[in-house]
Amino acid sequence: MMTGRTTLLGLTAAACLTALPAFAQGQLSVMSFGGAYQAAQRSSFFEPYTAKTGIKFVEQEYGGEIAKIKAMEQAGGVTLDVIDVDGPGAQQGCDEGLYEKLDWPKVGDRKDWQPGTENDCAVGTIVYATVLAYDGDKLKDGPKTMADLFDTKKFPGKRGLWKNPVSNLEFALIADGVSNKDVYKMLATKAGQDRAFKKLDSIKKDVVWWEAGAQAPSLLASGEVVMTTAWNGRIFNANKEGKHFKIVWDNELLDADYWVIPKGAKNLDASYAFIKFSTSPDVLSNFPKYIPYGPVTGAAAKAVAAEYAVNLPTSPANVATAFATDYGFWGDQGEELRKRFTTWLAQ
Amino acid sequence: MSAALAGRDLARAVRRSARPAQRVAFLLGLPALLFLFVAFVAPLGALLSAAVENPEVRQVLPQTAAALAQWDGASTPDEPVFAALAADLKRANEDKTAALAGKRLNYEMPGMRSKMLSAARMAGGASAGPFREMFIAKDPAWGALETWQVIARTAKPYTLYYLLTALDLQQAPDGSISRVDAENAIFLSLLARTLWIAAMVTIGTVVLGFPCAYIITITPPAVGRIMLLLVLLPLWTSLLVRTTAWVVLLQTDGVINDILLWTGLTAHRLQLIFSRFGTVTAMVHIQLPFTILPIYSVMRGISPSQIRAARSLGAPALSAFWRVYAPQTLPGVVAGGLITFILSLGYYITPALVGGPADQMISNFISTYINRDLNWGLASALGVVLLAVTLAIYGAFLRIAGPDRMRFG
Questions:
Q1: Which residue of B has its CA nearest to A346?
Q2: Which of A342, A344, A347 is best to mutate for the B interface (most B CBs within 10 A)?
Q3: How many CB pairs below 8 A link A and B?
Q4: Confidence tier at A13 by pLDDT (50, 70, 90)
Q5: Measured distance CA(A318)–CA(A128) in Å, rounded
Q6: B372 pLDDT exceeds 80?
Q7: Nearest CA-CA distance, residue B311 and chain A, Å
Q8: Mean pLDDT of B134-149
Q9: Which one, A92, A149, A182, A209, has least CB within 10 Å?
Q10: How many angstroms separate the CA of residue A309 from the nearest CA in chain B?
Q11: ipTM value for the complex
Q12: CB of A96 within 8 Å of any CB in chain B?
């Protein structure tokens, strides 16, 4: 979280940046998702990089609205150098030409990145997971599989779900017996979509919907729900504050976060140098120390210290039944499914 | 004759002498007019045009669009159109713009985004025709008449797609317009819900605000001033903070449920948050000052001696209030109600935080389409529909109440 003073500093710096372009040489302007996540990036990427090169960071926060990037580019004043985007943002923004097409050799060997965590304009950094979580203090014999999320006989009570068709339609089919390898093939058909909605119907009256990532652990903490889907880092951080939340890793849904350079950015070379630094194995492998999101490059994943590795979605014990969000699928079908999901919600 | 002439000269002289003052007045007003234009008229114009603009396919597939202009639309086009498409896509593959047109086509024909992308990759590697067979072998959709009807339609400079979608209508590839399936029909019920919530909030603020304004009017001025301050006080706090306060009060383990349980009024905790009840309650609280102030300002102008006169002429207390006082407050009630109703139509934060999925209003959807889906056309079309409905309601109010029946302060 930015304090009032650093916000003021940031604003002043931003003002100087626009007033004196030559002054911008020694700094990089980055935008990320704020909160504990950006704090982890500050500790593991920004501060070590400043220590090493003297380049200072001007930080901004956003909620993943790539409309901000598009509006900035249309207005012609691109003041950001590097932006952290989520999977849909990486796919859509790259499709629509919002980002610089990357010169990959300047970043690293593209083959080091796990498939799907890189594209022509986005460099994957970490992997997080949408998982099932519950309060270990309240449920002694908790859920074990994704099917338990839909089993209101065995686990009566409200459950929290993300107010988004993404993740819920997948989980519904998995709970209905579809293997996670076939989920997207199934969801591409009308019959598969009907089946997923029918499964969701069975728990609809027991669902509390959350929108911001921080809501999921707070729903668990307040006892509003007995279990919830959540992003794994949020659950881990709640546990650091004394909670005993448990994560069910079964059929965890993986997503990556990426660095992109907005089209028209001014400090291209400095941006490349920073991206290369932050994804180098010894720097990236340090990231899970601050928040349990796993590095996407093979070399960095191996270099993570064992005590942090156990909490990562990518650790061998957790990843066995994992599957990844198919952004291509959501790019094609998202518009229709989102409308159907919203209509279904309001019924 | 000469007298009339003198009169006309006099009128002209008066006008001439008033002109410098008018000019000064206009110049003084100019900054406000300019501000209004820049901050209101221009964005509104942009909003209206964004709802019908259709640039994507024309930009990415210019040659195809030109070739399709001569197409009869009766059967799948011939080789020249496919050759134009191949040339366009080859360039789009280099510029990485194929997805832009794909996304636009995908709105009207789900699945076209990935078909465009794979066709662009294929065209990037192809050098010689015949392209027609090549495309159809890649995906049979390229041989379907419907695909080409949609491409031809989306290649026109203007589209009705966004406005039709905002009204739950769809256009089939052959151009006929029909209602969308019940499972995808969302925007009309959303509009009805938005109007209904705004109406409930308006009724709530008038029912609570009218007695409040009356009490402020009749109490001694010193007390009245303090009460007025209390009415205004919430306006000094940000909307977000007030909404979050309602989250704390309404949640299942929150204050209200604690009190209800403790007093034994209910046996178990009620679902107050994420509900219509919570949304309307929080919005009524936030809107109250906007309704109270116009009512209060009208009430203050009504002479209390009128009620005394009615009483002295033999009217019972209630009847004197209801038949002499209340009708005169109507301009304030209409104005306060209208302000609250129109402001409520655009609510966004409160339904998002306190409401459930069935309480989201039209602004919540506009925000999603702008921020996440980058579907600015549909966001604009929804804005146009909301604007049209607001103007219609305002007009209807004026018609029923009459402009002189409304006083804002």
A1: B358
A2: A342
A3: 92
A4: very low
A5: 12
A6: no
A7: 53
A8: 91
A9: A182
A10: 32
A11: 0.70
A12: yes
Indicate the pLDDT class of residue A10, thresholds 50, 70 and 90.
Answer: very low
B374 touches chain A (CB under 8 A): yes
Residue ranges matching CATH 3.40.190.10 in chain A: 4-127+255-319, 130-254+329-346
Torsion sign over Cα B255, A231, A156, A141: negative
Q: Rounded mean pLDDT of B286-297?
A: 95
What does the pLDDT look like over B1-43, one tens digit per residue?
455 567 788 888 888 888 888 899 899 999 999 999 999 899 8
Q: Do B358 and A345 touch (CB under 8 A)?
A: yes
Please name the fold of domain A4-127+255-319.
Answer: D-Maltodextrin-Binding Protein; domain 2 (3.40.190)
B260 and A CB contact within 8 Å: no
Q: Give the residue on A whose Cα is nearest the Cα of B56.
A: A96
Residues of B in contact with A64 (CB under 8 A): 372
The reply to whether residue B102 touches residue A66, judged by beta carbons under 8 angstroms, is: no
Secondary structure (3-state) at B10: helix
Q: What is the pLDDT of residue A83?
A: 96
**B60 to chain A: nearest residue by CA?**
A96
Q: Return the pLDDT at B191.
A: 94
Of B106, B186, B193, the CB nearest to A339: B186
In CATH, what is the architecture of A130-254+329-346? 3-Layer(aba) Sandwich (3.40)
Question: Which stretches of chain A are DSSP H helices?
Answer: 4-19, 35-41, 47-53, 66-75, 87-95, 146-149, 165-175, 183-187, 190-201, 215-221, 232-240, 268-278, 281-284, 298-302, 306-309, 316-319, 327-346
Interchain contact B93–A (C-beta under 8 A): no
Backbone angles phi, psi at A54, to 5 degrees: 85, -5
Question: Radius of gyration over alpha carbons of chain B, in Å?
Answer: 31
CB nearest B189 (choices: A65, A332, A346): A346
Query: What is the model's pLDDT at position A12?
Result: 41
Asked whether residue A11 carries a pLDDT value surpassing 70, the answer given is no
* Tokens 């309602």 belong to residue: B246
Query: How is chain B split into domains, by residue range?
Result: 55-159, 187-405
Confidence (pLDDT) at B124: 85
Distance in Å, alpha carbon of A112 to nearest chain B alpha carbon: 24
What Å distances lie between residue A193 and A130, A149, A327, CA to CA? Answer: 20, 19, 17
Residues A74-119 have pLDDT tens digits of: 888 899 999 999 998 898 888 888 999 999 999 999 998 987 788 8
List chain A residues with CB under 8 Å of B95: 97
Place of tokens 């890649």: B138
What's domain B187-405's architecture?
Orthogonal Bundle (1.10)
Question: CA-CA distance, B362 to B381, in Å (whole number)?
Answer: 11
pLDDT of A289 strictly over 60: yes
Mean pLDDT of all residues in chain A?
Answer: 87
Q: Whole-structure pTM over 0.90, yes or no?
A: no
Best of B373, B378, B382 to substitute, by most chain A Cβ atoms within 10 angstroms, is B373
Q: A333 — contact with chain B (CB < 8 Å)?
A: yes
